[in-house]
Structures are given as C-alpha cells and as structure tokens.
Amino acid sequence: MSQQLEQHCYLRYYPFPKQQAFHNDRYKIRHRAVFSGVGGGKTLCGCFELLSILVENPHSIGYIFEPTYKMVRRILIPTLESKWLLGHPIEDNPIVTDYRHGDNCIEFIDDQTLWFGGLEEPEFAEGTNVDVVLLDEAQYVKKFAESQDVVLRRLRGSGKTHTDIASSIVTTTPPPLIPDCRLYDFYENPNKRNPGSKVYRWSMLDNPFLPEKYKQEILATHHGSLAKRFIDGLFAPAGIGSFDYDSTIHELRDIQRDKLQSILYGVDFGWTNPSAIVAIGFDYDNRAYVLDEFYQNRVQQETLIQEAKEMQTRWGKGAFFCDRSEPQMIDVFQKAGLDAYPDQSKREDGVHALGSRFVVQGDGRPRIYVNSHCVNWIHEVMVYDENVKENDHAIDATRYALMGTRKGGGVKFINW
C-alpha cells in the first residue's frame, strides 16, 4: 500500500466477530465462501474484503459479479456507495481516480482496477486474468457451475502484483440442498470439496446492526428448511427434519484421544443398503466424537466382523449396539468375541437425542463433533430427514450407540 493511501481514511466498515474471522484469513485461503442468513451482512463484508485486497496491492485487478445486471444496480452499487465503503459519489473518495459508469469500472490511485457486472450467462465472466473475484448472491446465478468454471480459468493473477494474491470469494445464502449442487460440492461436500476452500458461516442473528423488528419478523415466518437457509445460513433439503449440522462448528480434523474417557460402537446391518459401523468416543463432559466409520453395501459377515475388530483395535474396547431387527447377526458378533447388544431404544428418542447434541451450549460448544474423514456420516447428516427412511444407515448406527446402555452399568473405558 502506498503512503498516500495510508494517509486517508477511505473505508468506515466495522466488522462484527464472525465477519472479522473471515477477514483474518486474507491471503491464507484461496477460495473463501461466506454462507449466512438473509441480512447477515455478507455482501458488505465481501465488497470490503475485495476492496481491501485491491488497495493493499498496487496494479491489482478485481471483479465483482452479481447474478444479473439489475442486481448490480439494486444491490452492488448501493453497497459500494454506502457510508461504510466508498461513499456517494464514489469518485469523491480520495483513493478513487476514475469511475467509468458506462464501463462498470473503478480505478484507484495505485493503478488498481475494479470491474463489475452481471452473470446472466457464464461467458459474461470471460476476459483478462484477474487477481481476486467476488461472486455475490451466488445461489441466484442461473448457471453457477459453468460461471465458476470460467472464473477459475481467469483466476491466474494479473501478473502485475508484487506477489501472487489470486483468490476467489463467494457470498450467498445457501440454496436448497439438491444433487450436484456446485456450491455445496465445491465448499462443503466431504467427498468433493476443493482442498483450498474454506466456509465462513453465521446466522442473521449474529449481525448486531440488523433491526430487531426485522429479525423477529423473519423468525416468525421462516421455519424448517427455510429457517436453516435464510436464518442460519445452512444448506438444507427442500423438506424439513434435517439436523442442524454445520461443518464450520461440528467438524474436526484432529481429535485428541487423551480427552476421551469411553467408547461405544453402533452397527446398522444391511445388504443392498450399506452396512454401517460407527465409533463414538465420549469425553468427561459426555461430549460425543464420531471417530471412525465403516460404510459399504453387500458386505459378507466375515468382512463385517473383521472391520469391527479392526476398528476396536484402533480406538479401544467398547460395546457394540446393533440393529435389533437382525438378531442372527448380533449372535454372530457375540460368537466372534465382540461385546454386542441389540438396540432397545425408540427411533424418535434416538433421533431427538442425536439432534439435541448439535445445539451449541452455554460454553460455546456443541455436544457432538465428527472426524472430517467420516465422509459418509457427514453426507447423511447433511441430507437426513426423519420423515423419510433413507440416507440413514450411519445415522441409525450413531443413535444406537448414543442410546446404548449396558446391563450391569456403564460403558468400558478405552484401553490403548
């Protein structure tokens, strides 16, 4: 940044904590996505972030895309002209040297250039190489996957900056969770997500500048999956009943074994549908950690037993609570030396017990976490609907373990 830029107060944006966490990762993460509820301040923080990157890097080039040109006029320009960013008129801001309205282009005093436009068609994103791109309100881009592909091809850096700062930003309320949803697959799908990406999520309730009356109106009218999307910023199926899973809260890449006090296993038997084994550890606060999973269809008895024994070798001794509809398989497990029991709980009680663990408690932490490599478990918990008997094999195994109690008292301590 030049000395003349440092001498001016040119942006008056003050982020709240969730926004600040996003800004703190500037230059650290190549592809960042802000998923927030309506009114969460995502467009403002995205624009501030892109402007900040530009002004910190002389000669850099940036681009902001809205889904349509009408949204450029209705959303983007008012945001840029707001008192928190460049102000109105834009060209009066001391860091702006030229604002070419007809070209949708703003130039700054250190030879930085900001272009902006609509994405009615993917080819509208074609052009010269850029350093940083913001796709705002991405869920409304008609052909988001194709448009993102074009953006990724352009994101090679302008070649004019001192260092490589090439990065992309997406800000949006998540769309309904449907198959092949690029926003979900690229940023959150455990099987497909880009390793250079990271999600930043907050609820509209986290925005302290949002009027209380507005918050109450949205809370009163949005329920089920609508509430998850437009209030909490979560991906959710079109129906209702999915758990309040949030990868930014509940997923861990490293679970410390020394914090675990005990272990249980859940087993859901299948053939055409997958068989699932889930290992769950518990700490001294009864907080659950989904440690490991086995998930496969058409598995022979011998293979399933071998997988159960190997999982127990990795994580320690503990009881196996199993699908009670398969007493023969439970008997096979017992004869193989595994401490196996039929689940005796009601389905709705288990679903409620599992669902309640996702809620962040007074200590700022939920009561369940999952190891990031448990991709099948994560997929099921994202799409699970208690009213539909599908995508529930790892979930069923989990609720068996959570509801499991042993005759004679308690679960076994881990023995490594």
List the helices and strands and how they pair.
Layout: H1 3-6, H2 17-23, E1 31-36, H3 42-56, E2 61-66, H4 69-80, E3 96-100, E4 105-108, E5 113-118, E6 132-136, H5 144-154, E7 167-172, H6 182-187, E8 197-202, H7 212-221, H8 224-230, H9 247-250, E9 251-252, E10 260-268, E11 275-283, E12 288-296, H10 301-315, E13 320-322, H11 327-335, E14 340-342, H12 347-356, E15 368-371, H13 375-383, H14 393-403
Helix pairs in contact: 12-14
Describe the structure in your own words.
There is one protein chain. The protein has 416 residues and is an alpha/beta fold. It folds into two domains: 3-212, Rossmann fold, CATH 3.40.50; 250-403, Nucleotidyltransferase, domain 5. Helices cover 31% and strands 20% of the residues. The protein is built from 14 helices and 15 strands. The strands form two sheets. It has an eight-stranded mixed sheet with strand order 3-4-5-2-6-7-1-8. Strands 9-15-12-11-10-13-14 form a seven-stranded mixed sheet, sandwiched between helices. Strand 10 (260-268) and strand 11 (275-283) form a beta hairpin. Helix 12 packs across helix 14. The protein is elongated and about 80 Å long. It starts with a helix and ends in a 13-residue tail after the last helix.
Q: What is the fold named in CATH at topology level of the largest domain?
A: Rossmann fold
Main β-sheet, in a few words?
8 strands, mixed
* CATH C-level category of the largest domain: Alpha Beta
Give me the side-by-side strand order of the main sheet. Answer: 3-4-5-2-6-7-1-8
